[in-house]
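Help needed: design a sequence for this.
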């Protein structure tokens, strides 16, 4: 068996470096910036009002309450056409530009309309009250974001406010997902004897999407080497990465292993972990292929430990790993010594001032329901397991 670290390092060294591309801002959520972003415009671009109210000269309101003569009405989106002279006010809506002459806004709640052309200002204003200056959010020349930043919805909003419609990022990698196995059945129909439904493909497609990559459904490969070689070659030509499940253990029909071996692309390990001991990796015409084990929990865990960090590295993430917290075991987690690190499916919650982790159900490598109710993987070192209250690192999955 190889250690987890050794296998992860081999994969890390074998994957291609992230390559930047220009992407529409609308499609850039979760992507990593490839360049610094320097503001070429101020936000807001002009002084404007933060409130609905009246644009006034602050000096005119010193003896409030005072009556001012209303000389205009200014909604957002229009340039002011008349100035505010001494003793005058303009009715103004949030976001409208400050009219010439005005230096403060009195919010509408502090005023009372007085006839058709007057307003009573009830409080004295100070210069600058409720005025948003140009560049108050972002000044021209500000280094707003840096290469390596991960774009959130707010980043996309800021980019749009600066006039960007496209941005230089590390684009989503295209990941083809293939299930293998003669036993796999698709669709809602009845199962023939010996058949099971393909659960890995929908799960792995979703894991790829959740990792921020483009998931491409390439269907089921049967346990037939010639057909699978053809399938893999075509897939490698149209995708940046392939993820397969099944066919990588030590059985007689382990087609992924056999095919990668034939192509001369096989690296195969028994990794010192449970679940997900068998793992195959290779490159087909330069395209990395992750041969994950067939048992659904093994497939999921193997994706988390090998494929996800690789995909995220290829998409420019400098820290491609899931966050790990230290929790306390909420109940004993016994295990047997077997030379492997166990990744137990757990439910983690925050209790007052610490995390508590409890096994989420059966720990067999085909028990996918317990994986579905887990939100973390507890990392349990080789040995006899944990007593209730013991500290345990937990990889958070959500
Ligand atoms: P294998 O790695 O191909 O020997 O498969 C190991 C176990 O996982 C077997 O019980 C398979 O039937 C099961 N398995 C393989 N692929 C899938 C899949 N796509 N969905 C559900 N179970 C699978
Ligand atoms: Mg199989």
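Sure. Designed sequence:
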């Amino acid at each position: 068996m190889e250690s987890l670290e050794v296998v992860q390092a081999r994969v890390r060294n074998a994957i291609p470096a992230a390559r930047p591309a220009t992407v529409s801002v609308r499609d850039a959520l979760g992507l990593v910036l490839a360049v610094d972003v320097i503001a070429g415009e101020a936000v807001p671009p002009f002084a404007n009002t933060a409130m609905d109210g009246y644009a006034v000269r602050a000096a005119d309101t010193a003896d409030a309450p005072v009556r001012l003569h209303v000389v205009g009405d200014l909604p957002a989106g229009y340039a002011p056409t008349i100035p505010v002279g001494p003793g005058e006010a303009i009715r103004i809506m949030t976001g409208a530009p400050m009219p010439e002459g005005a230096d403060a806004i009195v919010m509408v709640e502090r005023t009372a309309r007085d006839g058709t052309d007057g307003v009573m200002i009830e409080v004295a204003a100070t210069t600058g009250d409720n005025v948003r200056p140009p560049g108050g959010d972002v000044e021209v020349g500000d280094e707003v974001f840096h290469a390596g930043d991960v774009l959130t919805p707010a980043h996309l909003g800021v980019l749009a406010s600066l006039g960007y419609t496209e941005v230089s990022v590390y684009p989503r990698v295209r990941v083809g997902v293939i299930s293998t196995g003669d036993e796999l059945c698709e669709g809602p129909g009845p199962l023939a004897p010996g058949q099971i439904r393909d659960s890995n493909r929908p799960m792995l497609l979703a894991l790829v999407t959740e990792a921020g990559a483009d998931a491409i459904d390439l269907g089921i490969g049967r346990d037939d080497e010639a057909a699978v070689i053809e399938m893999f070659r075509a897939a490698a030509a149209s995708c940046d990465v392939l993820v397969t499940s099944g066919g990588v253990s030590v059985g007689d029909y382990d087609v992924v292993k056999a095919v990668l071996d034939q192509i001369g692309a096989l690296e195969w390990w028994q990794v010192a972990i449970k679940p997900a001991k068998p793992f195959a990796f290779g490159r087909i015409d330069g395209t990395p292929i992750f041969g994950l084990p067939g048992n659904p929990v093994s497939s999921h865990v193997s994706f988390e430990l090998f494929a996800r960090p690789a995909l995220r590295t290829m998409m420019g993430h400098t820290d491609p790993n899931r966050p790990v917290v230290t929790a306390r075991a909420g109940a004993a987690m016994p295990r047997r010594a077997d030379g492997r690190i166990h990744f137990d499916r757990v439910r983690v919650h925050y209790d007052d001032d610490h995390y508590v982790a409890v096994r989420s159900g059966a720990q067999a490598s085909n028990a996918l329901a317990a994986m579905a109710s887990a939100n973390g993987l507890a990392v349990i070192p080789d040995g006899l397991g944990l007593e209730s209250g013991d500290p345990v690192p937990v990889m958070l999955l959500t």
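The helical segments are 4-14, 153-161, 200-210, 225-238, 255-263, 296-314, 368-372.
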